[in-house]
Amino acid sequence: MDLGLKGKRALVCAASKGLGRGCAEALAAAGADLVINARGAEALLAAAEDIRQRYGVTVTPVAADIVSEDGRATVLEAAGPVDILVTNAGGPPPGLWSDWERADFIAALDANMLTPIALMKALLPGMIDRGWGRVVNITSQSVKAPIPVLGLSNSARAGLTGYVAGTARQVAPFGVTINNLLPGIHATDRADALDRGVAEADGISLEEARARRAATIPARRYGTPAEFGAACAFLCSTQAGFIVGQNILLDGGATNSVL
Ligand code: NAP
């Protein structure tokens, strides 16, 4: 299917690896030119070169911390006007409710709520002026089914979800859509880190921790960044213009609910 994205310009944050990378690749495969971001320059430059070679699109890498104000300013300046924004950043660490102090919440809110909001505030006006735009926020399945050890993530993502619910309806009249993609467990470094924590806590191997988690998913496996990216590219497509303010779960059936 032609997604109508040839020549569109997309900013994909936190995209040298994992789910952000999956989104960047799927958008590039659909013909979009990219600005991609991550903190580590080496992996980012390698990702940019790989995507350029494979898809023949323009890829501008910007090494910066998207969560810091300076980093965001650098990325936004390099990006200029964009048609598509995919927000993403690393997720907060796991823990217990009694571990977390105010500073931990502020850090989580900064990364997973206030950063995407700041990026939208900066880029929505241009999309509105041009009469077309797409925003996809990478959030988490924890929005629909909170994960107890990820209380910092549960809190920050819930805040972003509330913001998007209102804002998506305010910008929809101008041809701009905002939606959230909610990953369940996907095979990335983040999943490895979480599984390593379980392996250490339970005294089992990493493979065993993975196998146990996969067994709880109806699809009996982890999702892939490519599958995740394909869903993102569709949400960014011209065909998806009537999908507004939705929270779409990609979890292999792990969340047992009807809506
Ligand atoms: P990942 O494999 O750890 O990849 C993270 C990517 O983001 C890397 O390219 C990393 O590069 C970049 N990054 C991290 N922090 C950044 C920052 N402050 N500024 C710029 N770039 C940054 O993570 P992932 O699994 O793709 O997860 C992406 C998001 O989805 C996270 O918020 C995660 O919590 C959420 N999520 C993931 C899963 C899952 O199963 N994978 C499930 C639910 C939710 P640098 O380190 O070089 O910056």
UniProtKB/TrEMBL annotation:
InterPro entries: NAD(P)-bd_dom_sf, SDR, SDR_fam. It holds the Pfam family adh_short_C2. Gene3D superfamilies: NAD(P)-binding Rossmann-like Domain. PANTHER family: 3-OXOACYL-(ACYL-CARRIER-PROTEIN) REDUCTASE, NADPH-DEPENDENT REDUCTASE BACG. Belongs to the short-chain dehydrogenases/reductases (SDR) family. This is SDR family oxidoreductase. It comes from Rhodovulum visakhapatnamense.
